[in-house]
Fold this protein.
Amino acid sequence: MRPVPEPSESIARPAVAAGPPWVLVTGAARRLGRAVSLHFARAGWNVLAHYRHSAEAADRLRAEIQQLGQSCHLVQADLVLPDAARRVLDTAAAELDQMPRCLVNNASLFAADDARTASAVQLQKHLSTNTVTPLLLANELAQRVPADAAPGWHSVVHVLDQKVHNLNPDYFSYTVSKLALAGSVALQAQALAPRVRVCGLSPGLMFPSGPQSQDNFDRASRVNLLRRAIDVDDVARCALFIAENSSINGSIVQADNGQHLVPLQRDVMFAVDEAGRVRS
Ligand SMILES: NC(=O)c1ccc[n+]([C@@H]2O[C@H](COP(=O)([O-])OP(=O)(O)OC[C@H]3O[C@@H](n4cnc5c(N)ncnc54)[C@H](OP(=O)(O)O)[C@@H]3O)[C@@H](O)[C@H]2O)c1
């Protein structure tokens, strides 16, 4: 008779039970990063919250997480810098009782340009912040997780964008940087296995950005198959789901109300205004 396999939960659990797991969230102080951090904390995780400029918002996040009964440490870093990944993981090693079980690469630069006007500086800044450092953070984590960690226990969630599944040439440098990160999900999942799982999470439009007015956002946020705004907590829930489901590896989860199935010639923030002008 064949032996009965162990339940996957016990396969994935490390041999020595430690305290609550830690999640490292980059750009944690505001918007999606804050929602992800609070969602993990409510589920019993401790949070290493990375921020760059938003020190006060990061302090407030830490207080809220502590009120939930979880630990929260802050780490400040500019992720455009080449040694940022090593510095952030050095902080994790120095301050936490264990390496983060999950890394959510959420921080990102989103500056307007298009394919014809993209400059070397903008391309390089987007690639450094949105592609290179997230990939190096994942590599640093993989190098530092305990050698006897159970396969599937540690994971990386690269936050992408529905744009990578629904291309238009606006926000060109940003889109190129997220396309490279999306393409790296499978490569990094192969390279870092079995120590770390690597997945992507592609939200649709969640918050007003850059010059976008509230009125433009209200119209643009309903340009998806469900014709309603995306629930940010649903996106945060997906990150936790990836972190806690040890069978998901090398996959990209799309949490966008089906926005990626609504092709547009331009970024949705420009497309809704152009559509309004055509109608009037
Ligand atoms: N917003 C949307 O509707 C939308 C749609 C699709 C996908 N996404 C993706 O979802 C994620 C979160 O979106 P979001 O709108 O919440 O992000 P966001 O507000 O544009 O940026 C999040 C944080 O990234 C940090 N950041 C930016 N440049 C940095 C740098 N050089 N070094 C360190 N940190 C840096 C900032 O931290 P500080 O404030 O501390 O400086 C910022 O608060 C991003 O990956 C984005 O690409 C967003």
Q: What stands out?
A: Strands lie at 22-25, 46-51, 72-76, 102-105, 154-159, 196-203, 252-255.
